[in-house]
Amino acid sequence: MTQAHPLTLYNSLTRTAEPFRPVHPGEARVYTCGPTVYNYPHIGNMRAYVFADVLGRVLTFKGYALTHVINITDVGHLTDDADAGEDKMEKMAAQQAQSIWDIARHYTEAYWADIRALNIREPAHWSIATDYVPRMIEFARKIAPRHCYELDSGLYFDTASVADYGRLARAVTEEGTGRIEAVEGKRNAADFAIWRKTPPGEKRQMEWDSPWGRGAPGWHLECSVMSGELLGFPFDIHTGGIDHREIHHPNEIAQNQAFCCTNGLDVAANSGANWWMHNNFLVERSGKMSKSSGEFLRLQLLIDKGYHPLAYRLLCLQAHYRSELEFSWEGLAAALTRLKRMLMAAERLRDVSAGEGAHPKLAPLLDKFDAALSDDLNTAVALTALDEVLAAKKVDPAAKRAVAETMDAVLGLGLFRLTRADLRLRPKAATIAEAAIEDILERRRAARADKDFAASDALRDELAAQGVEVMDGDPLGWEWQLG
Predict the structure, then answer these.
(1) pLDDT band at 483 (very low <50, low <70, confident <90, very high)
(2) How far is CA 45 from CA 171, 260, 404, in A?
(3) pTM for this model (two decimals)
(4) Distance CA 426, CA 434 (A)
(5) How far apart are CA 2 and CA 58, in angstroms?
């Protein structure tokens, strides 16, 4: 299927929506800031990867050959994004009395499990930071003479040595922002560590020899090195959460400018990427989005409460990626209900072979879908187009399935592989077996057929006492759910 609408994407660097023109014709090269694997990701973290996945799927839909890179930070990220505090990985390893390598492996696997659960496509490369340390040292060696200076604590980047530092954030001042580490000897408040020396008398689990002493790379250096190594400067799009827009990404840009010997940021390519794209925050009013709270909102918690993870993906798609999205259990339940409706409509097309071409009634809906996604990834409107296709009457079923599958492939909801049983997850607190539920329901159906309503009510109460809600009159016909 051809797409008539040109793709336009919002660029955080220029603060404008711009037509997408790739650096390499027919290709799209995308880098996404990945997790620091010191703890489980919370659902707000995962919104960034749903966004990046949709971006990649839209680029594929538009016919581009996609190369997507997501990094895994297993060294160098301190507890504050602005180079302050302890190393996150070292701190967690000490708390759990485990090898830092074991910590990294465990939380990387947990992150990948969430990626799979949310139907996020595998990138072309998972770049692991520790695999690139020699290249980080070489990168730093190249830029150090003109752009860095050495202090007792490490090698620092002089932000005054590049033009337009902080343009992406629009908020960096000489006095700093309150999140900048105060280090004696720094030339400018916003200067940041390229290489951190291991303090005298200490030994880290992760440290390497360098021209500036034994130590570890700075967090910001990692992304510059891995994106340039795997995608080449300039590449097309760099994505991340909006929290990266203020410090991490301006620091990446400064390093890229230094490495490529480029000038100011009036030319976006001088930043290392033509587009910088950021998803907004997921907001949760109870305060359980912070990992420091101990119990925080992980995807597994949603699953433990009986919500399929793709209901969370749908919740994300219902809002524009640049808008704040408020999380609530009621909102998640509504998203699950919508997903059930979509799945039921898709089920009716399962036995139909997908045809070619679009029915005249469906062509405007495919155009609406394309137009919405071409307008800076407006997934909320694209979803309504999919709803309308699934609800369309008096159209060729084969054409209907073809269009619905095309749309689903871009939105990533898996409607043509999911089953009702997949969406009926068992809450962790539930004790009754599904077979027992079905047995009681069968007895209840028999009682109702015999008009023995006392027995029917008693069986309903028996199920309710075990956390099973019988959904009489449910228009979706789902029959029961575990509460």
Answers:
(1) low
(2) 23, 31, 29
(3) 0.90
(4) 9
(5) 13
